[in-house]
Amino acid sequence: MLKSALRSRWATLAVLALMIAIVPLIAPSAFYLRVAALVWIFALAALGLTILMGYAGQVSLGHAGFLGIGAYGVAIGPTHLGLSPLLSLILAAALSGVIAYVVGRPILRLKGYYLAIATLGFGLILALIFQSESAVTGGPDGMAVARLTVFGWRIAGAMQWYWVSAGVLLLGAWIALNIADSPSGRALRALHDSEVAAAGAGVDVAAKKLAAFVAAAIYAAIAGGLLACMNGLITPDAASFMHSVEFVAMVIIGGLGSVLGAVVGAAFLIVLPQALTSLQEYEQAVLGLLIMVFMIALPMGIVPSLRNWLTERLA
């Protein structure tokens, strides 16, 4: 019963809400609140990969491309089309879902390494478009992004962005947890274990994989739109291959298939480099070493490993 309670969606949301409530109490300045807001935004994008990789077992190395669609959507909408940033964000998320549906139908027929390479190619194409179409995207220099306004409230400042990003993350986590506990979520986990067995049990494998891919794309696009609005600027680097790798690393380090794991993984890869800046040229080497140590010591990921340790001690 204890193990079931620890894994319940309400316990997960309660822990996440507690984390969100504590950070402003211990943050010494607005800079740390901005870093925390970055963690929540990147965690939202990682939640999309949790659905795709953790639930459905499908690898994507082009996730940052969908983040770029959302980010450039909120930049292009007001600049070239005269739309509000909020409407642009909604339309960008919808467009990302449509593109994922169209592209995902042929790509998701592939498996394993072939699927990973196909998603990598798709992400590289998007990054190239963002960089080369300077008349629309601003090219390598990027674009300025209008400040997000919601029902007359102009969101500005680290504290406001902290709570906005935290609220969207909580909503995204609630949706992801509900997906996991739904019949569709159980079908995704079935095809994660074995697509052949899932098909034999009556699961529409192609449809479920495509639905997970679309959901992941929408999560990434919303995160990208929030990131662009908070920074006030977007460049092609947001859709780079390395950011896609970082998202995969966040999900795996935190714990594959764990909602809290996506948040912890995002915090690990965003906060830790900030803490290691004093090491200067050794920063990347130490960061890589710490990632190796964590994966060797906690092969299931940080959150599942800690949860198993806790249940064993309290059982």
TrEMBL record:
InterPro entries linked to this entry: ABC_transp_permease, LivM-like
MF annotations from Gene Ontology: branched-chain amino acid transmembrane transporter activity
Extract the CDD domains matched here: TM_PBP1_LivM_like
Coiled-coil annotation reads none
Supply the Pfam families for this chain. BPD_transp_2 (PF02653)
Taxonomically, which superkingdom? Answer: Bacteria
Q: Which PANTHER family does this chain map to? A: BRANCHED AMINO ACID TRANSPORT SYSTEM PERMEASE, HIGH-AFFINITY BRANCHED-CHAIN AMINO ACID TRANSPORT SYSTEM PERMEASE
Q: What is this protein called?
A: Amino acid/amide ABC transporter membrane protein 2 (HAAT family)
Name the species this protein comes from.
Bosea psychrotolerans
